[in-house]
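Example 4.3 (complexes with small molecules)
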Amino acid sequence: RIAAHLNPPNFELRREECRAKGGAPGFKVAILGAAGGIGQSLALLMKMNPLVSVLHLYDVVNSPGVTADISHMDTTAVVRGFLGQPQLEAALTGMDLVVIPAGVPRKPGMTRDDLFNINAGIVRTLCEGVAKCCPNAVVNLISNPVNSTVPIAAEVFKKAGTYNPKRLLGVTTLDVTRANTFVGEVLGLDPKMVDVPVVGGHAGVTILPLLSQVKPPCSFTPEETEYLTKRIQDGGTEVVQAKAGAGSATLSMAYAAAKFADACLRGLKGDAGVVECAFVASEVTELPFFASKVRLGRAGAEEVYQLGPLNEYERIGLEKAKKELAESIQKGTNFIKK
Ligand code: NAD
Ligand code: LMR
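Answer. The structure with (2S)-2-hydroxybutanedioic acid bound is encoded below.
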């Protein structure tokens, strides 16, 4: 006898029909790299998101186990697993949102750019799949170096004729959650009450917290500004060193990715006033990509906000950030163009 759970009747169709009748909004979300450190926790959090009706978990290893595990959670989303390149197209077909944490993480002593050689090729392959199977999906790119992988994705989509700059977003939310946490500590406030815009990019000096624009309005001494800026810029390295060779931020990153994905889904649903920082195609500076606050809507990043007034410390930081960002963006673009 075949155990019932190995040969289940097709309840899934009935569940999806039910949901359609109830008119409940349900989005189809794929996580590429779902068996990794970020991917597993992110899968858990997305399975808990009531806006998700279908969750596809894709990886080149271990996705069947992660899928079986997550699928026993009694939340709405239907979970399906996909293993290896031959199943990439099935994983992507029909998706509304694709979240990509696939790729290798840093070890102590490495920069994010040291990951370029391996992760650039992974991101290219996955984005070719997106262009072919769900060209209208919103893409949340987490794989490092984000300052280069987003330009890589853009070039892949341009080549395929599917590029929509509003639908490609590099995830910098972790910089914002760190900034809110560290600023909250200094001010003695619950980080939930704190809003720090973090602009530029996602590596070292390209991470530029705008402490002069913190909400609620407050002021910092030069020492506090220096301490907070450095701590936010080096937040990733702090975790890499503490993990001592076992990888980089996974749990806080999964939290940040889930928060950002939820914001994208609320935007797609038509909620008003959904604003997050993200690394996107931009005209805010002379660079083709830049992280700043964006308004998320049905079309993706519908509006990219200007930086607002900067103080002298931030203006100097912005110049440093732009110099490094320009090189990282060019490197990503060249990877596909040349
Ligand atoms: P990990 O090694 O734990 O997991 C990565 C997963 O990707 C693995 O399961 C691996 O099998 C999978 N993978 C590798 N090649 C793949 C392919 N071709 N297709 C699908 N899956 C593939 O790493 P992690 O800690 O989860 O980090 C993943 C990436 O996220 C790293 O590049 C890391 O630097 C980056 N990251 C970014 C941020 C950010 O703020 N944007 C924060 C933390 C980590
Ligand atoms: C982070 O900011 O934690 C990530 O970009 C991972 C890393 O390598 O620091």
